[in-house]
Amino acid sequence: MWFFGALPWDYAGLRVELGGSPCWNRRCGSCRQPASLPPPATPWRGAGQGRPLRRGGPEQAPSYPPAPGLQPGTRIPLGRPQRLAGGENLGREVLATGTKSRAEGHPRRPQRPLTRCALGGRWHGPWKVLAPAAGWTMAPPRNVVKIAVQMRDAIPQLIQLDQAKPLATVLKEVCDAWSLTHSERFALQFADGHRRYITENNRAEIKNGSILCLSTAPDLEAEQLLGGLQSASREGRREALRQLVLLASDMTFAQEVISRDGLQRLGTIIEDGDDLGEVLALGLRVFLELMEHGMVSWETLSIPFVRKVVSYVNMNLMDASVQPLALGLLESVTLSSPALGQLVKSEVPLDRLLVHLQVMNQQLQTKAMALLTALLQGASPADRKQMLDYLWQRNLRQFIYKNIIHSAAPLGDEMAHHLYVLQALTLGLLEPRMRTPIDPYSQEQREQLQALRQAAFEPEGDSLGTGLSADRRRSLCAREFRKLGFSNSNPAQDLERVPPGLLALDNMLYFSRHAPSAYSRFVLENSSREDKHECPFARSSIQLTVLLCELLRVGEPCSETAQDFSPMFFSQDQSFHELFCVAIQLLNKTWKEMRATQEDFDKVMQVVREQLARTLALKPTSLELFRTKVNALTYGEVLRLRQTERLHQEGTLAPPILELREKLKPELLDLIRQQRLLRLCEGMLFRKISSRRRQDKLWFCCLSPNHKVLQYGDVEEGASQPTPESLPEQLPVADIRALLTGKDCPHVREKGSGKQNKDLCELAFSISYDHGEEEAYLNFIAPSRRDYYLWTDGLSALLGSPMSSEQTRLDLEQLLTMETKLRLLELENVPIPERPPPVPPPPTNFNFCYDCSIAEP
């Protein structure tokens, strides 16, 4: 509805008070100026000077776009043009005119206007903006966000928060709206997700649409809850601990609790152990959350406190919620303090951890495995070997294989990581043998070499020395060692190379003793061939041992994030030596398939490497399954794959094809960019990594559909993928400064630059963004190398930077190959020249005119 005269009228989304009546003629009868906009689309009747415009139906106001720039209460002076700024109305003018002698009221007859009408007519008299009407939107300043503030038993407030104002001033305004005094006793928190307190440091995380809640100030809340811990009633202590669990993850609140000796009070509850149920579990949880902030070192814990926690682990009848927390606390102590780690090692027997592993409780199994791997990592090499030998004797391997790997419940990420660590530590026991060369003066090692020769060439019960002189015996031994595949008559010279050192001799002895028939067949079969076609057993074994150590990363430090353990290594004892037995027979099979000679040795090893690597990547669950799969990958199959790749490469080297590929490249790069951005919109779960130990905490991050905001937040283990609307945190893309990778990431620099950090650097990337006046970082650890490539490419595309990852190169190459083949389908079997045909020289003259006067016969 709209009215004439001095009544209000809605125009351009604003409630406007008019001092006169407008006209909607094509030419204003008052000012005799043409209107800059046409009248409303609905035909109006009775248009004329001083007459209201009406139509047959109910009276309606004309609809025009909103006019941002007019603030409520603004009075427009008479005859003074006002320009609207921003939005679609940029550059339009609104003019109010009237007699200069009057400041208010309806004029008898308006004077000649000072300028042309701007909105389809002349406003006769002054007007002003009273208030926004429904549907009106105006772009707020950059540092102003629209939020909601709620409080229990109160009507929520919808306010515009000016980030330039001090937080204390904002808090006072919120309290005044609810008639609350002493605003310093209150604080603002995020209402969704973790109830984090808002401070000057994190207030930049408040975005449009955020919901905050008014709560007690962190210092008062900490004082009140710590006082509740001293309550005489059990229910009072339980309720105080429940509230502490909810707030302990917030850094601001944790500082207040720790500064008030909160850790000491919690330590008293844990040491007293008056309640072994929920109260103790809550106390341990709060203690762990507070220690995770890193404000207090784990080395400050007292020995009686650690022993009390150990007693909870060793206790038989204990609440199921207490022991996983106690195991987690001891794991942190072991990884952070060598001295206290030795105490834990001496107080917690391995048999007790085996008991926890056999309980059908996945959380308890995971925490017990975490403490076990922490104890193994902190032990010396000799102690580690002794501990692992004891664990294998107690059938830990069989239990892991049957009840954890093949359990009905899915294997969690944390358990997969600890199984990887256990596998790496077990294979690490081979490193001393791999780094030790043979000792030519060692009687034991000489006897091992003679046993290797005798198993191949001397029948059981026969002796080489019967009836032969010493020189003849030495000559015969040297010849047999040559047949065995050693490059020198003295086999010790071949084993001086490290790696593999003595590990190669161990593998050969294991093969000869545990597969004697296969060993004899291998050696004798190759001895009977022609010299140029025989496969040297010793040389192959030495090189194959090096290859297996490289593929299995023997001797390399454990990664902090890797989960790629192989179930096959828990299927039986001596898994490395058993794998060698399969691999050496595969090498002999491939050698015969290739009809190789001594000159082809390196080529054969390359094929065997590819066969082993492809099969290990399939993660077979048993050695027999590995044997089946690797034998199915014959040399012919490998050759076919290589030939296909070579043909693909050769088909793209012709100059016309290269030119076509260059023309297709921009379009395909844009396709890859869109795919990367879609991958960011789908989102991904990332794992948080602590500076002290690996954490079992997940968080989810995704890109909004309009590609303007990164949304992220914490999620629980095992929960379904959250929706973007449920994520509490937002990071505008416009605030992002740069993308950092590898060692440039702050969460990698903080962890040092040793070998332990190598795998972490390969998967780490960070986003630097504006956080107020400071630079902040959003840190990522990708689950895999492929996910790392996809996310760094997507973020680079989002920031307008080139996508330079290896995955982009592979995807582009694949798309170019496929698109090129589609374009060349019609040219199949047509030879494509390497260069265009030459342009013929110009003719001697250009007299090509046809004489029409000459009659044709």
Automatic annotation (TrEMBL):
Residues 444-616 form the ELMO domain. Residues 34-90 are annotated as: Disordered. The keyword Glycosyltransferase does not apply. It holds the Pfam family PH_12. GO terms for biological process: actin filament organization; apoptotic process; cell motility; phagocytosis. SUPFAM superfamilies: ARM repeat, PH domain-like. Involved in cytoskeletal rearrangements required for phagocytosis of apoptotic cells and cell motility. Acts in association with DOCK1 and CRK. Was initially proposed to be required in complex with DOCK1 to activate Rac Rho small GTPases. May enhance the guanine nucleotide exchange factor (GEF) activity of DOCK1. This is Engulfment and cell motility protein 3. The gene is Elmo3.
